[in-house]
Amino acid sequence: KNQPVSHNPATVSSGERVTATERMEETPTIDVSQAATNAQPTEASPLMPDNVSEGLSQLCCVGKKMQCAYVRLTAKDLKVTDIRILSRYPYLRYVDLSENHIEDLTPLGEGLEDLLVLNIANNNIRSVPPKKKYLQVLIMNNNHVESLDNLDMPMLASLNVAGNAITSLSQVGAHGTLPVLRVLDVCRNSLTSVGRLQLDRLTTLYMGYNKIENLDGISSLTNLEFLHMRGNKLSTLDGFSKTMTKLKYVNLRDNEIKSLAEVKKVGVLPAVTKLVLAGNAVTETQEYRIAVLAVVRTLQVLDKDAYDEDAQLDAHEMRVAAASAKEKEETA
Hints:
The longest helix has 23 residues, at 309-331. The radius of gyration is 24 Å and the shape is elongated. It has a 13-stranded mixed β-sheet. The termini are far apart. By secondary structure, it is of the alpha/beta class. Helix 4 (288-295) crosses helix 5 (309-331). Helices cover 14% and strands 14% of the residues. A hairpin with a 2-residue loop joins strand 12 and strand 13 (305-306).
């Protein structure tokens, strides 16, 4: 088990590639318990052969000669700072190095060409990993990353960088560097805007607990289905577009939305069925639930409570009354 295979890595076939799992819960689970500990300076502590031997699993046939090698490594919570030894294990596909003290990811550029899943959460990392041709899932929440501008992963489907220090997403996906990304979690960073993300295939976006004040640029995400914006500073909802035909779930909880006029802007989304507005001043509006349904007709669920048939009828009557009042005002 502790004898690594040293032949050149083979290309991963499509049948061996993993599929990223979309997390559809309202609030992503974010472990920040290690953040303070990992921020402390530590003495150099390399990943040792014994550590690797104990963490290897999942024996597979690899390479052109179909030799056997372990493709999974779990080496978490070992206080490791140095991972240069990984260059000796070129066939690893699933690597968990979370909860260590790693700062330098340069060794990942030396081999590991078959890597599919990489978990480096809860470390001291400040920059993104080097390009990996087949990497599909990258988990690096609770580090010290400030920018994703140099992230280039042609097969990456799911990216978790929650709990870092990212201030802008303006260059994410630029020049086709993330062409198939579907799930992005940037919760608990230092973002003040959405930015014009160049992520044509993105379906799920977590941006909760930042400092975002507007939704400028969100309309470029025409394949988006799930949007989590809880705990920001949104007071206006300009930015949604009727071209966002797949967006079904929108979480705007704990923002600064005060009026139905702003909520009405959600109504341009042709497919939206679930909306969360709890924790906003607009919830104090008279007949709040009916009033929201009156301006966002496609809703089925508001703040986790489903609308029944009576509510649909009440909302229709409210729309008719509002239209009638507007007509009288215009003819007066």
